[in-house]
Amino acid sequence: MIKFTDSETEQLFLRYAVPCGCVLVQRGNITQNFLDELEDKVTKKEKIEKDLQEIWPFATGNLLVLAKKQGKEKIDKEILHTYFWDMHAAVVLDRNADFGDLNVKRCLVLPAKIIATNSTELTVKTLFGERKVKSEFLDEFKVNDLITIHYDNAIEKISEKNYSKLKHILMTYDNIPL
Amino acid sequence: MCMAIPGKVIELKDDSVIVDYSGLKREAGVLILKPKLNDYVLVSQKEIVQILKREEAEKIIELYASANE
After folding, report:
1. Residue A178 pLDDT greater than 70, yes or no
2. What domains does chain A contain, in order, with CATH numbers?
């Protein structure tokens, strides 16, 4: 069973994983109702009582491989970022190349800058232009904050250094469909 | 390398397996999962990351085939 170093790290995994639950719904792996419940629990920072490996076997499998290769027993933030920041784009693009069934720009984890806010939504600037995302996963935010986004959600605030790093990673790909 | 298409385990070795992707054979590690012969698997980072039920694997393979006709 997958184990995280602490509840904060587990919550961070869920914030990255839940937004692409729509793909699992599309494939019939979970229902929309179940996904809505998951999103609600993650917003409230409540524990998910289900086996996360059953819901997200591919993502958790990758995290476990990374942990094992680094001699770690539990998943920490470094492993999460390695997967979702360094590897996830390749996973998405490979999948899309084989199946053509992903909205790639929504599925990629993107670095973004907040340019406007209201009570529930952020307007952000990304490599692919402006987008609106939900702010429910963030505790606080303001204009000019740098964040990551995944599908329709803002995921976490990031540093200038990591923002540049993520931009650089994405710019190395020449097969992102525009 | 990440294979989004399931492959079938056709050979078991000490620390790896041979996975067959409709004729294309690739070796994959068993760092976290140890499949059985004829199991369908997904590979990422050259390691088995998921073992699939046969029905699910066949559905995905069929989806891939129709996406690439």
Report:
1. no
2. 7-104 (no CATH), 105-171 (2.30.30.140)
| B4 part of contact set with chain A, CB < 8 Å | yes
Q: In degrees, to the nearest 5, what angle opens at C-alpha A92 toward C-alphas A87 and A95?
A: 125
How many Å apart are CA A10 and CA A18, to the nearest integer? Answer: 12
Number of domains in chain B: 1
Tokens 């402006």 -> residue: A130
> HEC profile for A108-130?
CCEEEEEEEECCCEEEEEECCEE
**Using a CB-CB distance cutoff of 8 angstroms, which residues of chain A are in contact with residue B47?**
65
Six-digit token pair at B67? 């996406």
Tens-digit pLDDT profile for residues A9-44: 999 999 999 998 888 888 888 999 999 999 999 999
Joined together, the tokens standing for residue A14 give: 């869920």
B31/A58 CB distance under 8 A: no
Task: Write down the pTM of the prediction.
Answer: 0.92
Residue A94 near residue A103 (C-beta atoms within 8 A):
no
pLDDT digits (tens, 9 = 90+) for A94-152: 888 888 878 888 899 999 999 999 988 999 999 999 999 999 999 999 999 999 999 99
